[in-house]
Amino acid sequence: MHFKRQEGFRFVFNEPIEASFKLLINGQPVEALGSSPCKILDISPKGVKMFSEVKFGEYINRATLQVELQFVLDVTPIQAVGEIVWSKPFGRGNQYGVLFQAQEDIDELIVSEMKLRRKKEVLLAKQK
């Protein structure tokens, strides 16, 4: 899979964000995997780069492969569905590029949560 990002901004985390996901094929959860842990490495309003030790290899060539991600950037839980647009081996797992489906409320929530998170990080850095 090949995907070229063309977005306004992408925030890379110093410490990856803990998250969980459910794998979806044609919109239906893969029950064998249940909810699995992952880490969000970077984020934009349109998608994320995530890492998981769960490898989707056997599912990649099926119709539409998506993930339902659950994570918290600052204080509000976010649940977003996105399509896996690329994958590459990394360490004991894989990194995945996830392009969120058009969800305007999710775009706005990600931006506002990142602003709040960044303000707290800047204030914390000034106190040191």
Question: How would you characterize this protein structure?
Answer:
This protein is α+β, with helices and mostly antiparallel strands and 128 residues long. The protein has a single domain, classed as Beta Barrel (Thrombin, subunit H). It is built from one helix and seven strands; from the N terminus they run βββββββα. Strands 1-3-4-7-6-5 form a six-stranded antiparallel beta barrel. Strand 6 and strand 7 form a beta hairpin. The protein is globular and about 50 Å long. The model has no long low-confidence stretch (mean pLDDT 86).
Strand order of the largest sheet: 1-3-4-7-6-5
What class would the helix/strand composition place it in?
Answer: alpha+beta
Structurally, the number of domains stands at 1
* Estimated helix fraction: 10-25%
CATH superfamily: predicted glycosyltransferase like domains
Q: Separation of termini?
A: 44 Å
CATH topology: Thrombin, subunit H
Which of globular, elongated, flat, extended, rod-shaped describes the shape? globular
Order of helices and strands: EEEEEEEH
